[in-house]
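Protein modeling request. Please complete all fields; requests missing the sequence field cannot be processed.
Requester role: graduate student
Desired output: 3D structure, C-alpha cell encoding
Chains: 1
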Amino acid sequence: MGSSAGSGSSYDYAFKILLIGDSGVGKSSLLLSFISSHVDDLAPTIGVDFKIKHLTVGGKRLKLTIWDTAGQERFRTLTSSYYRGAQGIILVYDVTRRETFANLADIWAREIDLYSTNQDCIKIVVGNKVDKETEKMVTREEGIAFAQQYGCLFLECSAKTRENVEKCFEELALKILEVPSLLEEGSAAMKRNISKQKPEDHASEVGGCCS
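Delivered output (211 residues):
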C-alpha cells in the first residue's frame, strides 16, 4: 500500500491551531522544534506561514494545521481570517523579555476576544526560552496566574532544548478532544476536504464562483 493511498482518511480529526505573540518570542522556533528535530536561528516570519503535523493523542489520529504569524504590526491586516475557525490558540511569550508577557494581556488576549470565532476555543499560554534560566524576567507563578485569569492552560518550554515542546501541542490537542463542539468542527473540516477531492464537485465549485 503506497503512502498516498487513503491519505484523505488517515486521521480522525483536523484542527486549526494558531501561534500568537510578539515578534521574536520564538513562535516559529517552537513550531519547527515540534515539526522537525533541529531548530536553527530563524529569520522573522513574513506575514503568515503554516505547517501540518499528524500526531496521535488520546487514541485519536489528528491532523494539526498550525499557523504561525508575524508579530509585527504591519502584517496585522490578515488578522480576522487568521483567527477564523481556530480550535486552539497558543499564546507565546519570552520569559527573558517582560514586555512580551505584558503584551499577552494588552494586545493578544484582546485580539482573541475580538477575532476568535470559537467561544470554546482552547488556549494555552507558553513561556518560551526557559533554557536561559539566568536571564529569566517572568516567574512561572506569574505565568500560571495569567493563564488562570484568562482560562488558559500553561506551560514553560524551550524551543532550543525542545523541553516541553511536544507536550504543549499534545496538551492542547487533548483539551480540544474534550470539547464536543470543537470535535464536530474538526470532523466537518475533514468531510469538506474529502468531498473537495471529487472532480465533479470541484467543477461545479469553479463554475459557481468564477463564471
